[in-house]
Amino acid sequence: MGDTFMKWRRSADDCLIRLYKERFGVTPAKRPFFALLGEFDKTLTMFRDGQKVRFDVSEFEESEITFMYPDHSHLTKEYNQSVPHLFFQRRELEGAHFWGKLYTYKELQENYVTDGIAHYIQSYLNADGWAGCYVEAHVWKPVT
After folding, report:
1. Which tens digit of pLDDT belongs to each residue from 83-116?
2. What CA–CA distance (Å, rounded) separates 122 from 117?
3. What is the pLDDT of residues 43-96, one digit of tens each?
4. Which bin fits 25, alpha (ψ -120 to 50), beta or left (φ > 0)?
């Protein structure tokens, strides 16, 4: 996707690290591994040999795995970064209660329906969409 993508991606990832530090009070030791919560196989087509890995979320401490809806790409806009905002984010999501929020697994379980995430995901899946069809997971420690 070229230099523009890499600049945007680094900026989005830096924003996520900033949000993590704001949330937990410490800078993470490394950048996270990115994953999706649940079943959304379209992302496997983004890679030459896309594969799934499953792990038990209960094996992580609260700060070792976090979640965001929609994915962290919107953080470049939220933090007013001077990079191109490359990826489409559905306008109706902007400003929603979950916008710019980093969830722990427990918080996501408690708020998945009440914050409207379940509704939006189902509506976008029914429309055969891409953006807004999954909850992004951030794994801050290696999975063994």
Report:
1. 766 665 667 788 888 989 999 999 999 999 999 9
2. 9
3. 777 677 877 888 888 889 999 999 999 889 888 888 888 776 666 566 778 888
4. left
120-123 long-range contacts (CB < 8 A, ≥24 apart) are 120/69, 120/90, 120/92, 120/93, 121/69
Cα(first)–Cα(last) distance of the chain, in Å?
31
